[in-house]
Amino acid sequence: GDSVTQMEGPVTLSEEAFLTINCTYTATGYPSLFWYVQYPGEGLQLLLKATKADDKGSNKGFEATYRKETTSFHLEKGSVQVSDSAVYFCALSSGSARQLTFGSGTQLTVLP
Amino acid sequence: DAGVIQSPRHEVTEMGQEVTLRCKPISGHNSLFWYRQTMMRGLELLIYFNNNVPIDDSGMPEDRFSAKMPNASFSTLKIQPSEPRDSAVYFCASSREATNEKLFFGSGTQLSVL
Hints:
The structure holds two protein chains of two kinds. Chain A is mostly beta strands. Chain A has strands at about 5, 10-15, 20, 25, 30-40, 45-50, 55-60, 60-65, 75, 85-95, 100, 105-110. Chain A starts with a strand and ends with a strand. Chain B is an all-beta fold. In chain B, about 0% of the residues lie in helices and about 55% in strands. Chain B contains no helices and eleven strands. Chain B has strands at about 5, 10-15, 20-25, 30-40, 40-50, 55, 65-70, 75-80, 90-95, 105, 110-114. In chain B, strands 2, 4, 5, 6, 9, 10 and 11 form a seven-stranded mixed β-sheet that branches. A four-stranded antiparallel β-sheet of chain B has the order 1-3-8-7, with no helix packed on it. In chain B, a hairpin with a 2-residue loop joins strand 7 and strand 8. Chain B starts with a strand and ends with a strand. The relative contact order of chain B is 0.33.
């Protein structure tokens, strides 16, 4: 079945550091890929998405590129802020129902 | 827009008791999802509804769990009897897109079964 594998956390960075959170996937068919973010005490919210190979999703300074050849969708940000501290989930959807399959989440803490 | 509203935010109960979690989706959204989040298993889809009808309940762990959606603005997830291994954060999410890919999550219910 479909699955998403994220890099293990937690990740701790200083403010303005470069961020990469790795995500790889296994899926039948041609999935869409997503990053969701969960801030403390809140539910998940969609951060960005990409629907086909070589698409780049971007939002709030975060970017991720759909790499079909490596089945990856790594999340990057050039300069993180304290307010980016959250749990980040990689996800995919495939099949006729397009239901989401989530990764295990990666906790990011940004220190001032 | 008030977003997806869940209640209660926290629930502490004893093993064997009945627990009912509540959810109000965003108005106009026609799909509703219940997820469970634990450290060990991550985020798991329990059940989802489309136009108030249960479509896929294959993620419901066992018969102790049941979910209803009597109308477009309300859903419940019930656990009877509850067990300590049910302790988790339960999220409700809704969507208005046919593909169900863009979900709006509530803040969750933290359930502790002692």
